[in-house]
Specification:
Length: about 120
């Protein structure tokens, strides 16, 4: 131990730094390789996910529309609705509008409000 020179200590330190840098570089290279290898699979997954979300939005809009049309037809025929049913109608109607619903339902709502049915 007493015969270790500064040059030997520097060489050992340089070796240690080189090993650490090599491991770090190897880790980065492996990460880049894995990202490149899986990139196409992630693109397919994201595309499928977007398609599913569009379908869900479409189903949501159509279900809202079906509920609203049925409810408005019943009210238009003079069926009485209780407070809970009316609250649910207005919640669904607001949601339908946020989804960008058609104007024919809005027109029917305005018509029934004018007749004091809603």
């Amino acid at each position: 131990m007493e015969n270790i020179t500064i040059g030997q200590a520097a060489a050992a330190l340089a070796l240690l730094v080189a090993i650490i840098a090599g491991i770090k570089s190897l880790g980065k290279t492996m990460k880049d390789w894995l990202n490149a290898a899986l990139k196409d699979q992630f693109k397919d997954f994201e595309k499928k996910q977007d398609e599913i979300l569009k379908r869900l939005d479409s189903v949501d809009l159509e279900n809202c529309k079906n509920f609203l049309v049925t409810f408005l037809a019943e009210v238009g025929r003079g069926e009485c609705k209780d407070e809970t049913e009316l609250q649910r109608f207005w919640e669904e109607y607001e949601h339908y509008q946020k989804l960008g619903g058609n104007s024919y339902i809005r027109n029917k709502v305005d018509e029934l409000k004018g007749k004091k049915y809603l």
